[in-house]
């Protein structure tokens, strides 16, 4: 039985369309895969920056606590010195 030339040309056209779509999908998948890899790298970099920032914030908080304690000590010394001066004759020296 001879094959139908119209059916053969339709099959060939459908095959070409399928291959074109498959090739386009492969290209788009490659682009998406590449973009995803770039996003993963950026997320990794951001995670590292956040971790470093967390460390710096913790260090800064410690410094602020130390400064606050020093201010408290200085204020206490000032109050103590002022308390010692109360009632003294300024001319007595």
Rg calculated over all Cα atoms: 39 Å
Structural class by helix and strand composition:
mainly alpha
Q: How many β-strands, per DSSP?
A: 0
Report how far the terminal alpha carbons are from each other. Answer: 131 Å
| Main sheet properties | none
| Beta-strand content estimate | under 5%
Helix content: over 70%
Order of helices and strands: H
Can you give the mean pLDDT?
Answer: 91
Low-confidence stretches: none
Number of helical segments with 4 or more residues: 1
Number of domains: 1
- Rough shape? rod-shaped
Protein name: t-SNARE coiled-coil homology domain-containing protein
Organism: Streptomyces spongiicola
Structural commentary:
- It is built from 1 helix and no strands.
- The protein is an all-alpha fold and 93 residues long.
- It has one domain.
